Every structure is written in C-alpha cells, then in structure tokens.
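Problem: given the chain below (391 residues), write out its structure.
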Amino acid sequence: MAESGGPLAGVVVVDFGMNIAGPYAASVLSDFGADVIKVEGPGGDSGRDYPPSPGGVSSLFASVNHGKRYLGLDLRQPGARPVIESLCEHADVVIQNLRPGKAAELGIDAASCHRVNPRLVHCSVEAFYPDDGARPGYDLMVQAESGLLGLTGEEHGGPCRTPGSILDHVTSLWVALGAMAALSGKRSCETITVTMLDVAMALLNDRASAFVATGEAPRRMGSSLATTTPHRVYPTSDGDLVVGAPNDGLFRKLAALVGPPVEGDDRFADQTGRLAHRGELDEMLERVFRTDTTAAWLQRLDLAGIPAAHVRDLADAVDRHRALSATGFCDLEGIAGLSIVAPPVRIGADPWQPPVPGPVGADNRSVLSGLLGFDSSAVDRLTEEGIVVAP
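Solution.
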C-alpha cells in the first residue's frame, strides 16, 4: 500500500488488470500515493508465473505490481457482485485490460461501474482498433501490426522486437496520465480507453508524419536515421560507439577531429550531400573509429563537443544506474536478489520503499473490512463459499 503522503493520497484505485499494461498503470498511480487494490481470481495474475522468481516472487510481477493491496475475488461467481459494487462505490479509478467483451461479461466494464458510481474514472486498455473485434493481443503482436516491428532491425535482416515490452509500459503511462487528468475534471462517467496500437503509432509519430508527407515508406536502417547522418553506431577496436553529428556545425567538428579523407571532402559539406553519399561517409568513419578503443574515442569526442555514447550491455547499464542514478533501484526487503527499478520521478525526500508483493488475497480483510465495511462474519462466509480467494 502506498504511503499516505503522496499527491494522490486518498485516491482509491481498483486494478482488475493482468500481465503488464493495466497493472503497471495502477502501480504508477501507487507511486504517487494512491491506495491501489489489485483484484485477482483463483490462480492469480498470470504475471506471477514469469521467471525469474527469487524467494518465490516473480521479478516481472513485482516490477509492475508494487505498492498495492491484494484482494482475492472470483469475479465469475454471482456472489461476488456485492463486493464488486462496494469496490466501485469506494473507487476513484478503475483499471482493466481484459480481452474485449470480458469486462462486460464480468460486470466491470465502464457502464456497469458507472451505474454504481458515476464519479469514478474508468480506464480500459485494448490491444487493437475497435473494428478489429475481440482480438487478444500482446506487446509483440501490436509491434507487428503498427509497423514498429517491421522498421526495427538491420537493413538486410529480419524484423526485430523492441525489447522491454515497451508498448505495455508506455501504454500504462498514458493510462496513468489520463486517469490523473480525469481526476481533476468534471468526474461524470469519465471513460478512458487507451489502445496499444494507437500508442505504438504515437511512438512512430515523426516517421508516420514523414510518410504521410512524402508517400515514401521508411525501411529498416539498424541504428541509422533516414533524415540525418552521421548519427549511428560505429564499431571501435573493442566495442561499439554511437556518434551523433546531425547538423552542419557538429559535422564540421567531427570532420576536424577525424581529419582527411572526411575533412575537406566537398561531398559532405551539407546534409543533402551527406545523405546522398551516406555509404561512402560511413565506410570512412568506420575505418577511423576501428583504430582505437571506445573509451579513447569517447574522450576525444567529448572534448570536441560532439554527442557520443558507449553501447553498453544491460549488466553494465544496470551497474551504472544503481551507482549513479538519482533514483536507482529498490531492493525489496526480505528477499535477496529481488530489486526493481525505482520510479524516474520522485516527489518528496523520503526514500521509495514499497513492500514485497503479497500472495493472492494477502490483504483480503484489510480491504473487505477496513475499506469496504464488510463485517468479519461476512468475510468468513464469502471465503467459505469460494467467492473470496483465501491467501
């Protein structure tokens, strides 16, 4: 449960989501102080099953379900309806990302929730466009349908997945942003539907706009950009380096640094010429950068005022983030090896320390009795009937 001091203190969020897109949106709201109730049926969120699981807790589940209370409730049973309605009565925000039609079947769609409480903000995540029907979809399928998968990879290779379930995570940010905006609005049957395919297209904003303007379909280019060069990965003697000289001023600095034959070649005097002779320029630069180490080139490029970066593996990047970031990682107490990335936005000076996620139903009594007002005998009866899922 979130600490009470955040800007969303007092806001109650009911999370009916599974996997990443819905649950992570709810955790973002928890990071800002909301009281998030995660509702899971028998068996729990399938995200609990993804390895690795140090101490029996999935790292994926912990990363997108931290800072919540855990209520076990079998939504399929008619006897769950009073609990669902009470959750809606107390909720400021409801989030669900079930496959199209399933929320209505379970009575947690916008219309059903708003009949109980018209002031709650109802948020739904869907994978595809409304006319695509009830298609289920994961991040990879949406990357494929959006064109993102087809644009990612080397020029002569096949499509490559953008790692990190990026569409699930960015969709979650839009859901959380929309919910926070709606909480400041009129609060009258507010319904937010975020489609992952819309989010993917928004991430391709500049490329999609360029295609509409020119009719020229972009192609896979590895780390290169269609609109400017040099601005890509170059191999060095011991690794890889990103160099960015996307305008004439920076390119003149780069040419002066690497010298002839790049320097003084009139073909590269402006962006138009560099794009027309991209292949020749890249070959020259590759030969130059292979002559020394990544560290040596980074030092020279930095002194010359040319943007550059080391292409790191994840292990190196994690070590640097833990050591140097203002937010870093959070080691969850009591479970060795279970760490999650801290939110990149921190409000207040207190350290961010969410508890280890509990099992399904870990907070049944605190939610049912403490928040919703069910007496102990009612909770016992619901548990005995299998409507409330015991931890």
